[in-house]
Amino acid sequence: MKRSGIWLEKGELFFHNGLNIFVNRVSERFDLPEHEHDFIEICYVWSGAGFHYIGDETIRVSQGDLFFLPVGVSHIFRPSSPSAKEPLLIVNCIFDEKLFQFLTSLLPAEYGLYRFRQLVSEPGGWLRMRETNGEFGRLFESLHAEFESKRTGFETMLVGLLLQLLIGMERAMEPGADAVARDAVPYRIERALQYIRERLHERITLAQIARHAGIGERQLQRDLAEQTGLSFSALLRKERIDRSRMLLADPSLSSLTVADIAAQSGLPDLKRFHRLFKQATGMTPGQYRAGPR
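Structure tokens predicted for AraC family transcriptional regulator:
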């Protein structure tokens, strides 16, 4: 039975110029009202923890949770704490039923997203799932970036990313999906190392890498220690010294000064760079560059 006092959100407030997809990232608050909508919504918990009230159910949520909410399902998120230091950030992708029906009819029955179509046809039906390796987070990151940048062709990119998301959700619903998933810890560490190595010249935080790997900071610290034997700070120093050694050893980069290489390796403080480099190699950067290896 429909409860009174529930606010109805309409797609016409979000869909403009023929584009029936809208993506945003919001910090949930205690003063936001419970609501339902005349469009479909997929919500992803970007960071933080809290509760999701769906109809008469209360679900504890944290980073990595995803919800598929058909038309007419009432819900609201609440953070665990009113503190601004512990926000519950949600990324929402909303789209109209016609687009959903179109996308799920593109594929033949053996690949079709018909479990989602069945949910749409059942009043009050909704779906919850949780990512295993940050796979939903990466898609939502791309969806949000495309929607915000609005570069040429972004409309088509949004539709393509939405279809990828729906297929990813369909795969996660398959029996035995967990059994065929990659070994989570080595895969997460591989992604973390790739992220670090692509950004050594920047300021890198544990929070950034955890977000990219799709896990919490404490879990990432444990995984790094288990897989590499190093703490996050020690691993970051090692990667930066390894990068500087590679640059110093490259004869095609002889025009770069030691200060240039230190900066490109993410250690712009030259005194600190010299100290860390000598601790790791037993020689100064200049000696390393000049000597045989």
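The mean pLDDT is 85.
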